């Protein structure tokens, strides 16, 4: 185990020195004369859930996930369609682009749908070829060879977009994760503790940074072989779900289990992975990399109930993160925590971390998986050139639906829908919701990420818990134990959620205990532990969506709605007007807000 880890430590010590020089040379917000060029960058991530972003004017102006344009969930490969589309959305021409920024120094080749399951299936094989490949993939020399080979191929991809190959730069995976959340969410110049944790990228599965006055400094790194994210993903696969996609289903099942079994199963997981004495590095306690632990899991957890196994894994994950964060705060003396990477999509673990006495503030980047790397590489490129970077104000950074596009989509199905154009759309929708109807909404700029934030959402009155069954029957086909999410204006959130630190949650990246008023939104509360993952909408962040929420409150005296993503089961969230109309007709939905139009399916 030591021999496989030491080269990684040395590699990242070198990276830390390089990063220090980089900061001293470029990262001075008070030296605008260092900023040259257009200040326009295209950020690209071409791995699992590929995405592209455009940075100009000091901020990310547009971002799109390739899955929304292809219809292939978690599309794995170059965002061939997303790049020209985000450039169009941002009003950027090819000649404007100063740099093309590629996330991860090493990125795997494009994959077909279903690749992820096949990949995890192969990890259970123990033949000589598999063992040799596993050992080779853990060596830095081999990783660097593959990285150089793929870099040349990736440079060639840039020509497909008409962009200049000589402008391409590559950025480290976890440095990009750290930059994403630090520059994307920081609100002042005071110190932040920046944490990243995921399945893996560029030889690492996590890192610890500090951020001060716009500069980042690396404190520690975690080798990929010691990956908590991989351990969770392999368990997801073991239980028959799609790894790198359905981990949230295990998290959702965990509270239903008898907790007396969770502790002993968590102890089994602790026998695989713990923390070193300093507390900020993970320590693998088995010989094989955790991505190859499937056979051991099969042996150690044979005949364990699904719910108990989920509960034990979740308890272990929460314990690990709590101990790790406490150690990182102790080392750095910084209690304001920013987090990124796929592990921080686990909102129940985020809850455990945010409730620590040592934590003054906690935020995870919206949709913290690899799709967000397109932000981070733009930030790194901008800072390298001495440019100021402004944080995100919202995540409505996708395509808008024009009135013309909406009318054309409605006209194509004129015989199947009735069309209204209400003068007060918010009031009309609020009336339908108050009457118990379920309304899909596709209006305004599409939100980035895994969570629908109102512009590509299905809305309902959550007072009636039967709405869960109705929505599942209509369209979602979710596992019965999975709750939906509530949305409420942040200034009214205290009535519904216990949030002692007044943490923001505009992107559904945290979970809170519900209050005694939970009866007003039980359809959006987890039945087993009475928690909820709310969208706490900020004042002015989405005026049309806010108006629906407020007018619903005026009609009912209840200021909370159910919000779930607008998509067919197994498909990405809808993107275009045509997508939205297609889902309306292919599902049990009957009402659709389509830009300025209200479509009602004919019966």
Under CATH, the topology of the largest domain is which? DHBP synthase
What is the count of structural domains?
A: 3
Question: Helix/strand/pairing class, anyone?
Answer: alpha/beta
Name the beta content range: 15-25%
- Name of the CATH architecture of the largest domain: Alpha-Beta Complex
Major sheet: arrangement of strands: 13-23-22-14-15-21-16-20
Integer average pLDDT? 90
Rg (C-alpha, Å): 24 Å
CATH class wording of the largest domain: Alpha Beta
What percentage of residues falls in helices of 4 or more residues? 25-40%
> What low-confidence regions span 5 or more consecutive residues with pLDDT below 50?
1-36
CATH superfamily of the largest domain: Carbamoyltransferase, C-terminal domain
Taking the sheet with the most strands, its summary is: 8 strands, mixed
Number of strands: 23
Count of DSSP helices? 19
Which term fits the overall shape?
globular
How far is it from the N-terminal to the C-terminal residue, by CA? 65 Å
